[in-house]
């Protein structure tokens, strides 16, 4: 299906044709979606966009926008959804001509963000949700933290459970809006078993393009 993405360029609206899948990749901390995204990129050569990576790259660039974002984060405030969407818009615009598909990793985090993305950028074709039991997520993160030289203050069981509960509530609200295009993937299996289900879901989308 040919779609037009409406993106802002230097304050003006511009249209870009997109005929590739846009996939949201969701999952709790420790679900293994990073590993699966890498495998998707390797197989399909999709463009992998992480809102967190885009924010960090903008800050590291030293641009005026990056300085504004750095100041917001330094104060412990949340970066506005408008700012995150603009970064995603620009990244999609930059890759639109050559991309074979877009993986939007870890976004949306709330249901209003999903609606804003679809209104401002484009509807998603597929949502991959990597599902794990809460305790599995806790165990994986604690194991990863134990093996890491970097100690994070929030890598303790009680804090993790709070983070996961918040994630679960927000994600359930998102998925309830998009039941027909959500693939719930059991992420408590071997990596290749999980990826087989991912491939099946993506191939189903590609067959409709």
Q: What is the structure about, briefly put?
A:
With 209 residues, this protein is α/β, with parallel strands linked by helices. It is 53% helix and 19% strand. It is built from eight helices and seven strands; from the N terminus they run E-E-E-H-E-H-H-H-E-H-E-H-H-E-H.
Description:
The protein starts with a strand and ends with a helix. It has helices at residues 33-44, 51-61, 64-74, 81-95, 111-120, 134-147, 157-177, 191-206, and strands at 3-9, 12-18, 22-27, 47-50, 102-105, 126-131, 182-186. Helix 1 crosses helix 8 and helix 2 packs across helix 3. The longest helix has 21 residues, at 157-177. It is built from eight helices and seven strands. It has 209 residues and is an alpha/beta fold. The strands form two sheets. It has a five-stranded parallel beta sheet with strand order 4-5-3-6-7, sandwiched between helices. Strands 1-2 form a two-stranded antiparallel sheet.
The number of distinct helices, counting runs of at least 4 residues, comes to 8
The largest sheet, given as strand count, sense and whether it forms a barrel, is:
5 strands, parallel
**What is the arithmetic mean of pLDDT?**
87
How are the strands of the biggest sheet laid out side by side? 4-5-3-6-7
Distance between the termini: 5 Å
* Structure classification: alpha/beta
The share of residues in extended strands comes to 15-25%
So what's the overall shape?
globular
Task: Kindly report the oligomeric state of this protein.
Answer: single chain
Overall strand count: 7
């Amino acid at each position: 299906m040919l779609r037009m993405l409406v993106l802002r360029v230097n304050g003006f609206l511009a249209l870009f044709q997109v005929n590739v899948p846009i996939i949201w990749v969701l999952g709790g901390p420790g679900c293994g979606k990073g590993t699966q995204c890498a495998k998707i990129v390797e197989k399909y050569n999709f463009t992998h966009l992480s809102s967190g990576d885009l924010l960090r790259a903008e800050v590291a660039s030293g641009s005026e926008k990056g300085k504004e974002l750095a100041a917001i984060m330094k104060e412990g405030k949340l970066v506005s959804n408008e700012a995150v969407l603009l970064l995603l818009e620009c990244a999609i615009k930059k890759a639109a001509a050559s991309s074979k598909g877009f993986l939007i990793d870890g976004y949306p985090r709330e249901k209003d963000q999903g609606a804003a993305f679809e209104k401002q950028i484009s509807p998603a074709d597929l949502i991959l949700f990597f599902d794990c039991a809460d305790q599995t997520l806790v165990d994986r993160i604690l194991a990863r933290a134990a093996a890491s030289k970097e100690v994070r203050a929030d890598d303790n069981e009680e804090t993790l459970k709070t983070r996961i509960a918040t994630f679960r509530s927000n994600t359930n609200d998102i998925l309830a809006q998009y039941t027909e295009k959500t693939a719930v993937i059991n992420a408590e299996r071997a990596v290749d078993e999980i990826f087989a289900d991912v491939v099946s879901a993506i191939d189903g989308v590609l067959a409709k393009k």
